Amino acid sequence: MSDKIRNIQPLGFPWKTADPFLFCVHHRDEYPQGNEEMGPAVNLAGRNMGSDFTVKDGFRMYHGMKVPGFPSHPHRGFETVTVTKEGIIDHADSMGAAGRFGFGDVQWMTAGKGVQHSEMFPLLNRDKGNTLELFQIWLNLPSKSKMVQPYFSMFWHEKIPVIKHTDDVGRHSEIKIIAGNYNGQKALDPAPESWAAEMDHEVGIWTIQLDAGAQLTLPATQSIDTHRTLYFYQGTGLTLEGREIAPYHSIEVKSDEALTLQAGNSETHLLLLQGKPIKEPVVQHGPFVMNSAAEIQETMRDYGRTQFGGWPWPKSEQVHDRASGRFARHADGREERPV
């Protein structure tokens, strides 16, 4: 094994992550045509409705009863970064904010002192299937930022920097920079209280696509302390520093040395997560992530008392009008749409 490779292991559910990250999942569901309620236009019998995480007929309903997805639920003490590849997500939250995003868009949400939100997957197409593919990444907050005001940003895919690379034999690669810096090209600004807001923390979230046979060298980080993990989730025959990597594996690597990837005979897709560790205690209880058990108990009392602002929407499975298009409406009433 190359001394640049520290560990290789199969991807489970969720994917294993390193500080400052807490959690990462990859969802891909081949949803059928949608019905009038934007749920699946098929019989849902035989599913564990309300907690349907087993792939059946190519898809899962998750916690949704009529529409697939994750009805209203709370978070405190960390951030969610939701990276879409295909399909649509409808967001609603306890601050009254809402949004619809997909097909390469990214939502970056700071839960901070506490927020409820829903993430539903409306099946807009009634005449064809509704494929959904996404990553959800949980990025920890340091203790000084765990009780900041909740906040979210929408990164429309039209504005996310994409680096195109051509190797010596003309094969192509693309690196989409959701967070961090790639050879001087910076990502859009993350949430203001994020660990990623300080460039010295070297937080990177990149999606990487290589054509069959393409070669790409990833640049080194500045710090030897930065954790870097690659998640090889699609393709065959990838080699990393000359070592062949089996599909659907993660590779922990040294970050302070450049790293050469070579795709096999198929298009290859990876996710990269990197960052300096926060190096603080992590105590997690479901959707709450704090620094001590006492803080978790306080969080549970706070949620029981305030519901983090309550739920201002008519449904726990809140979805927006079928024709609304992609949009973000913030808690202050400001609305934005992709240009």
UniProtKB/TrEMBL annotation:
Q: Which part of the chain is the Pirin C-terminal domain?
A: 206-309
Q: Where is the composition biased (Basic and acidic residues)?
A: 317-339
User: Which InterPro entries is this protein grouped with?
Assistant: Pirin, Pirin_C_dom, Pirin_N_dom, RmlC-like_jellyroll, RmlC_Cupin_sf
Instruction: Outline the segment boundaries, as ranges, of region: Disordered.
Output: 311-339
Domain of life from the UniProt record? Bacteria
Residue ranges occupied by any Pirin N-terminal domain in the UniProt entry: 47-139
Family label: Belongs to the pirin family.
What name does UniProt use for this protein? Pirin family protein
Originating organism: Reichenbachiella agarivorans
